[in-house]
Every structure is written in structure tokens, then in C-alpha cells.
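Hi, here's the filled form for the chain we discussed.

Project: internal
Contact: R.S.
Residues: 374
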Amino acid sequence: MKKRMALMVVAIAAFLTAIGAVKYGQIKKGIAQQKSFQMPPEAVTTIVAKAEQWPTTLSAIGTVTAVQGVTVSADQPGIVDRIAFESGQRVRQGDLLVQLDVRQEKAQLAAAEAQLDWARVSLERAKRLVETQIGSQEALDNADSQFKAAEARVGELKATIERKTIRAPFSGILGIRQVNVGQYLQSGSPVVPLQSMQPIYVDFSVPQQEIGRVRVGGEVRVANSQSGSASPGRITAIDSVIDPATRNVAVQATLPNADGKLLPGMFVDTNMVLGAVESLIAIPASSINHAPYGDSVYVVEDMKDPQGKTYKGVRQQFVKVGPGRGDQVAVLTGLKAGEEVVTSGVFKLRNGAAVQVHNETQPGNNPAPNPVNS
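And the returned structure, exactly as it came back:
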């Protein structure tokens, strides 16, 4: 019985040993296969980094303001008799906008003009009587006073009629009208906004430590998301006071705005050209892999796998990013001219990943793009 039990134990031990040896071989083989496994190469596009000469610029967020902008309002109270404009219309200085009812003033003017004619005749008569020594000087003075009063009354009524004729104070583009025919307007009631669009101002702020590099007459380029292109202008004024709350200095630039795409109140990106030129590496903005721990690019190099075979792979390189210009972004440190950089597909890469370069279609790399649709 004991011999039989011992044989059984020996047999079970031999069986377990054999199974363990088989499993060990399988695991060892799997580990070796995993070490030798190479992910299929990712399709990417690349560009060879090169040094470019960029002018030194200073960027700021600006606000577009009109050179002249008002809300045209009623000077005298009255009822709107006629509206001579349409909302959004372009007008010239002096164009009629709104005519208030002046029938009563015109009737009063007719009576005042008749009174003026009578006063003129009386004055002439008094002068003749004085010259013939028939009339008195007192009568002449009284006639002259009545004539001047009548003349002043006519001028007052004409001025009232003119003040009830609302005209454009300067050339520009009207906004949306705020009155209707038959509406009674109080003195100061708004009629329509009027903005002068050409030229136009862009107001922005510059840190006090940079103000020494900003000068009146300096070049400015202004871009907005609506136009998709940059408009040139010049700095025309620098404030003489630094804001004590922000330690910034207000700067004003003037732009021709020939296409009328810059509208008052619009936020724009402002780039001031400071004159100096610096050499730096410029690559497409799509090359930058942004992450909380820093910005990086992927540099394409020849690498070796665990078996010693050479393949084309990528090395993640952390960089310091500078200002942008169009589709490009400047790399200040971390990248050398001549290195091949991945320009699209960076989101799916990792350090050491194999890649396959297809440069038939490249992402935008224009320093001054002009998109058709923006």
C-alpha cells in the first residue's frame, strides 16, 4: 500500500514538473516575442527645419475704434416729418438725415420777415426826416432799434428751422435708425449712430518695460478672424501716462481700412514691428505637441530595434516656443537647423515610434496666409 502511494506521488510530481517546464517555455517564448515586436510605422509628414530671419515684433490685443463716432441726436424738440436715410447707408458730411416739422416756425418766419420789412422802411423814413431836420434823433434811434430787433428775430427763426433739420456732421456709415415718421423727439433723443470708418484707429496697451522700443510712425500689422489677413498701419500716438493699475501704456495706431472690414468695437491681434531682425528656427504650428509638462516636437532619425535592425523612428524633443507668424511658429531653443521634424500626426506618436514619411500633402507653412474662407 505504501509503495503504491509513493509511486502515485512520484507520478504526480513528474506530471507537474513536465507541465511547469512546458509553461515556462511558453512564457519565455512569449516574452521574447514581445521584446522583438515592432509596431507598424505611422504615416507622417515632415519638414527640414531651417533658420529664418524674422523681424522683432511685439504682440498685443487691440480694440478698433472710429476716428469719429457719434450717435446723431435731435437738437430741438419736434415731430419727425421726414426720414431721408436708410440704416447702414454711407453718407457724406452735410447730407440730410431727418427733417422735423417746421410749419409753425416757417409761419412765424414769414411774419417776422414782414415785420423786418416794415422796420426797414421805418428806419429809412426816420433817416430822411433827420436829414431834413424834420424828425428827431430819438425817433431815428427808436426805428434803428426796432429794425435790429426784427432782424434778430428773423435770424433766430431761421436758426431754429436749421436746427430742426438734422444733417450728417461728417462722412461715414450710418447704423440702425432709432426714429420713425410721426415720432415726437425730445431734445437730445438719439436718431442714428454714425461712424467714420476710413481711416480707423486701433487702441492697445504695451508693458512699460517695452515702451522704449515703440515709436510714433512704427509699423503695425493688425489681423482679425473675420478677414483672415493682416492690415498694415502706423503708430500715431503714445499716451504720456502709464496706467498705475496695469503698468501698461496706451498706444494708438491708424489704419487706412480701405476694405472696411475693421469695425468699431472689434478685437484684433496687433503686431508691432520693432525694426531689429533675429535668426530663429521657423516650423509649421502643427509640428508642436502641446502638453502640460511642456511643448515638444518629434525629430525623425535612424534608430535600431532590439535585434539591431535600422528603422526610421522619432525622438521627442522638448522646445521653447516663441512668437507666431501666419502658419509658422518660432522655436527659440531645443531644435537645430537641418533636423527633420514631423509636421502632422504628432498626436499619435511616442518616443522611439517607427514612422513612414509621406510628403505629398503638407500642412500650411505660409508666414502670411490669405485663406479663401475664414
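Let me know if anything looks off before we file it.
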